[in-house]
């Protein structure tokens, strides 16, 4: 069922109005009587029982169907629950000095109205709070057929260049997460991994330029968090979609959910074939009539698959055990041809450069977690995940040089690299909103990373005569163990939003750089242990 939603500005106005009074709080949860799923964006409003006129006191339900009207004045009122596509429900309530918990409210579908409604509303494409900006992918019409890196390029302040390198506000020192986890991504492999994630699987993109002490301080520019979709509707349902463009790019996506009883199970598969032709033209002129001209074209191709599986087990309303897995498989190949012409002294007059690349990416993430709800806005979440990313990458170059005296030279070069990255991530997060205007967050974060990526090189006068360049061989081994504890207070008071916290991190770094034929016994290990603490405070 698709439910039209009221404008975000109207919801905000209701919430601001609700904060203008100060006596008692009203809370509860709204569900669909037909599907038993929580209802979000339901209008909850107080009505004058004498005149029947709605008052400027109310709010909207959140994604879990819960609502809180804070500091409503004492008295007797009618509370009205309304949602387009549902039958409006009203109840009489009396507000005193204490909190009023209405409990569970169930709204039945309005069958007649549902048959007549054909125009649906959408969430705002962007929402902002004190810590991050959230870009809702489902509200972006350009997301169809796109990939994660293409969506990022459309986010304000985020730049993605032609090689897939990401920067935030001009700074490339940025962390990119999926569902709040690094999942083994780094600056070397994330461009290809993000190209394999279909936009149809993404719910939102969060941009944090000034993260709280809860989050890592490693990315100085900030954090970009990609949240994948979740569907908690009751029953058995799925979707399939496919698209193709005039350049031969094609996408096929399948999703299926089975939510019955105490289990919620989902699976998704995305297949993508991407072709990206391009070219470059450069004209450089120097004093005394010298020049260097370049003309090139390239064709890059990539086929990939993105697999997602998971299940949530809910023995009761307060406990959830969840297990999920993500797998990516990709193969890329391409060709670049560039012609350079020059009359600079001491240099060739013509250089024709042909480059070919190919590579594979195989990655997987498995996460196991547990979440317990103590009450409204009071929970603890703990999880552990294992990530592995690997795959060979090959590059081959041929240069045909012609010199002013008519002599010619052909140079062949090749590079081969095996990327092997694995890591464990662990987290324990506790959150409690113990005052209407103040939230406490505290917990533990751990990231234990291992990288072993050898790179070899060869050169020669022909493709059949390539000789290894053993002096350039390098096996880089890099281990980092990071453990962190954090404490953070955040909230709002009247028109002010604030956050203050403290984070402590223990770092343990172990690295080796091995040459050709060397073992661990031949090269001493570089070791560094460090402790860092960070205090953060912001107000807006």
TrEMBL record:
Q: Which SUPFAM superfamilies match?
A: Carboxypeptidase regulatory domain-like, Porins
One Pfam family per UniProt: Plug
Please give the InterPro entries that the UniProt record associates with this protein.
CarboxyPept-like_regulatory (IPR008969), OMP_b-brl_3 (IPR041700), Plug_dom (IPR012910), Plug_dom_sf (IPR037066)
Ranges for domain Outer membrane protein beta-barrel come to: 377-519
Q: Which residues form the TonB-dependent receptor plug domain?
A: 145-214
The keyword Signal is assigned to this record: yes
Signal peptide start-end: 1-22
* Name of the protein in question: TonB-dependent receptor
**What is the originating organism of this protein?**
Duncaniella freteri
């Amino acid at each position: 069922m698709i439910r039209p939603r009221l404008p975000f500005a109207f919801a905000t106005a209701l919430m601001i109005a609700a904060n203008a009074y100060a006596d008692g709080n009203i809370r509860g949860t709204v569900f669909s009587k037909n599907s038993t799923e929580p209802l979000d964006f339901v209008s909850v409003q107080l009505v004058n029982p004498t005149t029947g006129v709605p008052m400027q006191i109310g709010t909207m339900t959140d994604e879990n169907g819960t609502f809180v009207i804070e500091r409503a004045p004492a008295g007797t009122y009618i509370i009205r629950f309304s949602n387009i596509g549902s039958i409006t429900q009203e109840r009489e309530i009396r507000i005193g000095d204490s909190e009023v918990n209405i409990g569970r409210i169930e709204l039945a579908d309005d069958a007649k109205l549902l048959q007549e409604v054909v125009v649906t509303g959408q969430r705002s494409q962007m929402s902002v709070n004190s810590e991050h900006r959230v870009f809702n992918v489902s509200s972006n019409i350009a997301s169809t057929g796109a990939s994660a890196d293409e969506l990022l390029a459309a986010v304000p302040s985020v730049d993605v260049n032609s090689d897939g390198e990401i920067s935030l506000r001009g700074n490339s020192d940025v962390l990119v997460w999926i569902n709040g986890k690094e999942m083994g991504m780094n600056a070397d492999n994330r461009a290809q991994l993000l190209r394999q994630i279909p936009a149809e699987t993404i719910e939102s993109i969060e941009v944090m330029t000034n993260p709280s002490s809860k989050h890592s301080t490693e990315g100085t520019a900030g954090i970009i968090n990609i949240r994948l979709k979740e569907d908690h509707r009751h029953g058995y349902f799925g979707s399939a979609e496919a698209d193709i463009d005039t350049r031969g790019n094609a996408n096929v996506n399948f999703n299926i959910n089975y939510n019955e009883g105490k289990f919620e199970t989902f699976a998704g598969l995305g297949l993508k074939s991407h072709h990206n032709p391009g070219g470059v033209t450069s004209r450089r002129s120097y004093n005394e009539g010298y020049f260097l001209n370049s003309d090139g074209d390239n064709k890059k191709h990539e086929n990939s698959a993105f697999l997602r599986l998971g299940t949530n087990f809910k023995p009761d309303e307060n406990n959830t055990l969840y297990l999920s897995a993500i797998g990516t498989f990709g193969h890329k190949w391409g060709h670049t041809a560039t012609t350079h012409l020059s009359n600079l002294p001491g240099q060739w007059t013509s250089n024709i450069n042909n480059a070919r690349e190919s590579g594979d990416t195989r990655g997987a993430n498995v996460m196991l977690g547990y979440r317990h709800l103590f009450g409204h806005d009071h929970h603890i979440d703990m999880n552990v995940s294992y990530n592995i990313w690997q795959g060979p990458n090959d590059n081959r170059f041929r240069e045909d040089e012609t010199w002013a005296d008519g002599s010619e030279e052909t140079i062949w070069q090749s590079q081969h690299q095996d990327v092997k990255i694995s890591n464990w991530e662990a987290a324990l997060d506790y959150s409690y909103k113990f005052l209407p205007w103040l939230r406490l967050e505290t917990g533990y974060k751990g990231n234990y990373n291992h990288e072993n990526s050898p790179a070899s090189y060869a050169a020669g006068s022909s493709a059949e005569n390539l000789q290894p360049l053993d002096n350039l061989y390098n096996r880089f081994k890099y281990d980092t163990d990071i453990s962190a504890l954090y404490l953070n207070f955040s909230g709002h008071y009247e028109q002010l939003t604030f956050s203050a916290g403290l984070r402590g991190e223990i770092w343990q770094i172990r690295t080796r750089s091995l040459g050709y034929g060397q073992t661990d016994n031949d090269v001493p290990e570089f070791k560094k242990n460090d402790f860092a603490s960070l205090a953060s405070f912001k107000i807006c």
